[in-house]
Write a structure and sequence with these properties.
By secondary structure, this protein is an alpha/beta fold. It has a single domain (about 5-245), classed as 3-Layer(aba) Sandwich (Rossmann fold), CATH 3.40.50. Helices cover about 30% and strands about 25% of the residues. The protein is built from 8 helices and 11 strands. The chain has helices at about 45-55, 90-95, 100-110, 125-140, 155-175, 210, 215-220, 225-230, and strands at about 5-20, 20-30, 35-40, 60-65, 75, 145-150, 175-180, 195-200, 200-205, 240, 245. The strands form 3 sheets. It has a 6-stranded mixed sheet, with helices on both faces. Strands 2-1-4 form a 3-stranded antiparallel sheet, covered by helices on one side. Strand 8 and strand 9 (about 200-205) form a beta hairpin. Helix 3 runs antiparallel to helix 4 (about 125-140). The longest helix is centred in the middle third of the chain and has 18 residues, at about 155-175. It is globular, with a radius of gyration of 19 Å.
Length: about 260
């Protein structure tokens, strides 16, 4: 039986329309403390609208959203558009409009492995570095809920694997719940406790393995190569965040 006191976020019968078109219909789910819930769905399925509702940027037209009273959200956006003329370093961006505990900052810099780019102009970081930077900034808010919108966008496959490993490590070490949004299941599945497949309504829900075999999921996405669908990151060598294989004498410090 589920402990109701472990619920950190709950949606009940959420519906929302734009210009008479129904974007979300009767969306209900619970997110529990210390769990990773992944929302998947094709483009235009209502994922962004649901995030905006959860963040309070939109008010539900129908239904309710419950948030635990002590909820602190760290949000990682899908993209960040930077004015190329803005004189902003990575270090300055991390602390912009936000008080930071220096010891906590050092821990997060090590976790996300972005120390080497701290003094770079923000416009000069790579796609993978930018995603880890956005994750670090979200973590500096000391959240008990991370909301991650397509966190691995623009990152190569090895970088994706490492990013999802970091997210799982944050959950394991800090007990932080994670609400993660994606349109792609092939790597997200192994990093998730529970999956919701959305296409304006909830098509199917459950543990990753059951969702990957559900007829509604297969109708939307087709069958995935089994070698990719449930990737668990178990092999006899390790990569750094840039995809390089680490020698045996240099184990991954987070491994």
């Amino acid at each position: 039986m589920t402990n109701k006191h472990s619920i950190i976020l709950k949606c009940n019968q959420l519906s929302h329309q734009f210009q008479g078109q129904e974007v979300l219909k009767n969306i209900s789910f619970e997110l529990h403390e210390g769990k990773i819930l992944t929302l998947i769905g094709p483009n235009g399925s209502g994922k962004s609208t649901l995030i905006r509702l959860l963040l309070g940027l939109l008010k539900p037209q129908q239904g309710q959203i419950y948030q635990r009273p002590d909820l602190r959200i760290g949000y990682m956006p899908q993209k960040l558009h930077i004015n190329p003329s803005l004189p902003l370093t990575v270090a300055r961006f991390l602390t912009l409009n936000m008080p930071v505990d220096l010891s906590q900052q050092q821990t997060i810099l090590e976790l996300t492995e972005i120390q080497a780019v701290l003094h770079k102009p923000l416009q000069k970081v790579s796609g993978g570095e930018m995603q880890r930077l956005l994750l670090a900034r979200a973590l500096l808010r000391k959240p008990n809920l991370l909301v991650l919108d397509e966190p691995a966008q623009g990152v190569d496959i090895n970088g994706q694997q490492e990013l999802y490993r970091i997210i799982a490590q944050v959950r394991d070490e800090q007990g932080c719940s994670v609400f993660m949004v994606s349109h792609d299941l092939h790597l997200v599945m192994a990093a998730s406790d529970f999956v919701i497949c959305l296409n304006h309504h909830i098509c199917c829900t459950g543990h990753p393995e059951s969702v990957s075999q559900h007829p509604e999921y297969l109708r939307l996405f087709g069958a995935l190569d089994n070698s990719m669908a449930l990737y668990n990151h178990h092999h006899d060598h390790q990569h750094d965040l840039h995809g390089n294989i680490l020698p045996p004498s240099e184990p991954n410090k987070h491994g």
